[in-house]
Amino acid sequence: MVVPSPTPARSVAAGALGIPSIDLSQRRDRVAKLIARACEEVGFFKVINHGVPTDAIARMEAAGFDFFSLPAHEKQKAGPPNPLGYGSRNIGFNGDTGELEYLLLHANNPSCSQKAKMINRKDPLKFSCVVNEYVEAVRQLACEILEMLGEGLRLRDCGALSRPIRDCDSDSLVRINHYPPCYCTNKKVEDELCTTTTTTTTTTNTVATATATATAIAAAAAAAAKSSSTMVMNNSSKHKISRVGFGEHSDPQIISILRSNGVDGLQVLQPAAAAAGGEAGGGGVWVPVAFFINVGDLLQAMTNGRLTSIRHRAMANSSYKSRLSIIFFGAPPLHSLISPLPEMITADSPRRYRPFTWAEYKKTMYSLRLSQDRLDLFRTDRNDELTDLADLD
Ligand SMILES: O=C(O)CCC(=O)C(=O)O
Ligand SMILES: [Fe+2]
Prior knowledge:
Blueprint (H helix, E strand, L loop, with lengths): L11 E2 L6 E4 L4 H14 L2 E5 L5 H15 L3 H5 L8 E7 L4 E11 L2 H11 L4 H29 L10 H4 L6 E7 L6 H7 L13 E3 L5 H13 L5 E2 L6 E10 L5 E6 L5 E3 L5 E2 L15 E5 L1 H6 L9 E4 L7 E8 L6 E2 L17 E2 H9 L27
Fe (ii) ion (FE2) binds next to loops.
């Protein structure tokens, strides 16, 4: 899967952005160390020379665009999200909303084939084959990254992090997010994103960017809250307010692999001001298409907090081009037990999380808002009756 590069590129930290970029075609021991360092220090990195075939990516993007360009009433036949299926604006079950529409699919083939009947009614088999081809390539990438992470962390069992995702009962998902372009008037955006239920937009969905002062941010945010679907400039016209397309959260699974079509939008909380820049080519130089990788909550739990599940969000589209992101969420089977690996528990780093099943974690996640810290609820020091877990270590 990981392809050798004829002229291995340097592995560079993306300078001021602080997002490490890792060339997977370098020597394995070096890549392993870089992955472990990126996961420990940032929780987020970009990979190049990843080996996912370009045509599989192109087919997946085309399948996403074909679906999202259907009339609203056709798209709605693949919804509402339960949580799988087509969703628009509403994210989850607890009132989170965003400026996007999406398809959330199970990564296993039979489930995806079933949903495909409502997504591509003319040729469901084509849709499920395209998704399957993409998912298998990205699952392989996720597992290789986790195995190298295991090596970089010097785990006794380097397959411990990837095995749950390779399991045939893995509960991994794939999500295609579509952020409509900003040339749409408010009315057009409303029409483009099917509004099945009334949505509320709060100030938490509105953030100030650029160099606005805190007061200007507050004033403009209040204005934006009143006029939630417009770009707001404050009186001095210097402070652009952009809206959040997909609110702040961490991903609950083990690992996420995100690819976007080069339109900006993704932001991570740490380091500050790190926005994904796409892969600008030009000047006759081919730049390998990149994927962004982030540590999920379960990986934080399995490493007893040594790795951090990074908080991120996507801004509403402020480009004239549609933004499409495709995310593979690598997850274990529903009933697998998640617990810090024994070697991650030491005298200096006592057990931080109690064991839990992925099913239990999902249930908790679905009962909370997007931005709530769910893993915190599984900390040992919050569960008096469950702190004595020495026999499970
Ligand atoms: O669409 C994006 O860029 C980010 C979306 C995301 O973080 C998610 O779906 O979990
Ligand atoms: Fe996410």
